[in-house]
Each structure stands twice: as structure tokens, then as C-alpha cells.
């Protein structure tokens, strides 16, 4: 059986920046994820673990590396989707929770709703026993290294996986764009915009969220495959062209049910790593698509 895993650390890569720490981190993670998949772990668990590790590292603009909004608050977004049954969970503008992706998973496992925002999302995370942050200013200390001076900076994290039983899953987590307004919610927690998984494909997006929302990017990719007979690579490139028409740049990672992968971007670069039953691990930032 085929397996595949792709992770990303955001399409907000700035030329001239040294991303060696992120590349080394992704190299280690992709090897861990490969081991998990080869050991028979479910795609959903691998995606949760990968995104939680990316969030906890402080190396990306998600989880610990998130930047404050214009009011100084750290409002984070995340979502997760299981392709087997299209169950999904998401949190928007959540504060005080160490791993928004696990909060999104808690919403999914609870099953009553798909998307919780603000204090309600935090309550769900707390009832699930997830780690809280009591001193946000000292916890979120890494964002200064990610380009806060640049109003357009951003850098979501995400993962998509195909497991040995044929299950697909996708997850995405972000601190959002730098200098965002209080209450701003991007594409990341919106199922069908920033994240999608069904029995054909799993997708996680990164980039200017408003353009990904307006083009319903993640679901559009799946629809182009399902109804248009496109390959995952064709669908991914077409979707990025639509995102561009909506005035945004960025990238996405996608894997289909046969383990074929795509990870295109139309920004300057995208931190990303991949491995599959057909491919040795690769880690890329600025180098062109494989
Ligand atoms: N898409 C994210 C957002 O708009 C940002 C990113 O991917 O870097 O919140």
C-alpha cells in the first residue's frame, strides 16, 4: 500500500532569510512522521502530531511563534479534517491554548459543531484537558524573529497524510497575518478554504487568507479532481491561479488517495517537506516545485 506525508511551515518565506533551523526541524519531523505511518498510525493522528510539533517549536507563525494582533492579543486559528468520514473540527481566534490543532481536534471529537470561536473554543479545549497558556507575553516570544516589521508577513503550518489503510487527513494552524485587526479570522480554520480532506485528496493551504477564502481554495482543489478529472498537480496549480486572481499569493500541500503529492506556491518560497512510498524525504524552501 502507498503512504505519503507532506508538512509545511508557511508560504510567507522571505528571500534573504536563513531558514536552516526550520529546514532541520522539518527534516526531523518528516522522518518521525514517516516512521509513524510505516508503523500503521492513522493519517489523522500523524497530522495532529505533526502540526502540534510545528506549533510548539516557535519556528513558524503558528502556536508559540504567533504574532499579536493590533490590540496586542494572540488570537490563533486551526482546523483538522478526516477524509474517511469528512468529520472536521476548527477553532477561530482562540486565546490561551498551547496547541490550537488539538483544540480543533477536540471540537471534531465532541461532534456537536465544526467551528468554535473565541472563549467558546477555549472552553472546549480546557474541558478536553489541553495545555493552557497563563502568561501569553512570555510564551509568544518568538514572533519578533519572523518578520513583524513587515505588514504582509505570515507563516502558517500544516500537514496532509495518506496512511497505509488508504485514509487521508489534513490539518492547518496559524497565528494569522501580522498586524491583523482584532477578531480577524483567516482561511486556516475554514473547512473548504484553508483545509480539506475527503476520500480523494487532503489539502492544507497557506498564504493571504482573504484570497484563499474568496476562492474556496481547498475544496476547489478537491472539486477539480472529483468533477473535472484533474490530477492533484493540475488541480493544485489551477487553484493557485484562482487565488492569484483574488489578489493573494501563497501555496498549498496536497496528497491524493494514490500517494501522489503536490506542493506548489506562487509566493517567494514555501517551507515544506515531503516523503512517500514512492519518494525519499525532501525538504525545500525556495527551490522550485519537485
Ligand atoms: N493563511 C493564513 C492566514 O491568512 C496565513 C498564512 O498562511 O501564513 O491567516
Helices, by number, come to 8
User: Judging by the overall fold, what is the CATH architecture?
Assistant: 4-Layer Sandwich
- The best one-word shape is globular
- In spatial order, strands of the major sheet run 4-3-2-6-5-1-11-12
Number of separate domains: 1
**Biggest pleated sheet:** 8 strands, mixed
**What is the fold-level CATH name, i.e. the topology?**
Glutamine Phosphoribosylpyrophosphate, subunit 1, domain 1
CATH class: Alpha Beta
- Say how many strands there are: 12
* Heteromolecules bound: aspartic acid
Helix content: 25-40%
Which structural category fits the helices and strands? alpha+beta
List the quaternary state of the chains. Answer: single chain
Q: Compute the separation of the termini in Å.
A: 23 Å
**How large a portion of the residues is in β-strands, by DSSP E?**
15-25%
Rg: 17 Å
Structure notes:
This protein is an alpha+beta fold and about 290 residues long. The protein has a single domain (about 5-280), classed as (Glycosyl)asparaginase (Glutamine Phosphoribosylpyrophosphate, subunit 1, domain 1). It is about 30% helix and about 25% strand. It is built from eight helices and twelve strands. Strands 4-3-2-6-5-1-11-12 form an eight-stranded mixed sheet. A four-stranded antiparallel sheet has the order 7-8-9-10. Aspartic acid binds next to strand 8.
Amino acid at each position: 500500500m502507498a503512504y505519503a506525508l507532506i508538512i509545511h511551515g508557511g508560504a510567507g518565506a522571505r528571500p534573504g532569510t536563513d531558514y536552516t533551523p526550520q529546514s532541520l526541524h522539518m527534516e526531523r519531523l518528516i522522518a518521525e512522521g514517516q516512521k509513524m505511518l510505516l508503523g500503521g498510525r492513522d493519517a489523522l493522528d500523524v497530522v495532529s502530531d505533526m502540526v502540534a510539533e510545528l506549533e510548539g517549536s516557535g519556528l513558524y507563525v503558528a502556536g508559540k511563534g504567533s504574532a499579536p494582533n493590533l490590540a496586542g492579543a494572540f488570537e490563533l486559528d486551526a482546523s483538522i479534517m478526516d477524509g474517511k468520514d469528512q468529520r472536521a473540527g476548527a477553532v477561530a481566534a482562540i486565546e490561551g491554548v498551547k496547541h490550537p490543532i488539538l483544540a480543533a481536534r477536540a471540537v471534531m471529537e465532541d461532534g456537536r459543531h465544526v467551528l468554535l470561536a473565541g472563549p467558546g473554543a477555549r472552553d472546549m479545549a480546557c474541558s478536553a484537558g489541553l495545555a493552557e497558556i497563563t502568561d501569553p507575553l512570555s510564551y509568544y516570544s518568538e514572533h519578533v524573529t519572523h518578520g513583524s516589521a513587515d505588514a504582509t508577513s505570515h507563516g502558517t503550518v500544516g500537514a496532509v497524510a495518506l496512511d497505509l489503510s488508504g485514509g487521508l487527513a489534513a490539518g492547518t494552524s496559524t497565528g494569522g497575518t501580522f498586524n491583523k485587526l482584532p477578531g480577524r479570522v483567516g482561511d486556516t480554520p475554514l473547512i473548504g478554504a484553508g483545509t480539506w480532506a475527503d476520500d480523494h485528496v487532503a489539502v492544507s493551504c497557506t498564504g493571504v487568507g482573504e484570497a484563499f477564502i474568496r476562492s474556496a481554495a481547498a475544496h476547489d482543489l478537491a472539486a477539480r479532481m472529483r468533477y473535472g478529472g484533474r490530477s492533484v498537480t493540475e488541480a493544485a496549480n489551477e487553484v493557485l491561479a484562482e487565488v492569484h486572481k483574488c489578489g493573494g499569493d501563497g501555496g498549498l500541500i496536497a496528497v491524493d488517495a494514490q500517494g501522489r503529492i503536490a506542493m506548489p506556491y506562487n509566493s517567494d518560497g514555501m517551507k515544506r517537506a515531503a516523503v512517500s512510498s514512492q519518494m525519499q524525504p525532501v525538504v525545500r524552501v525556495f527551490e522550485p516545485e519537485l
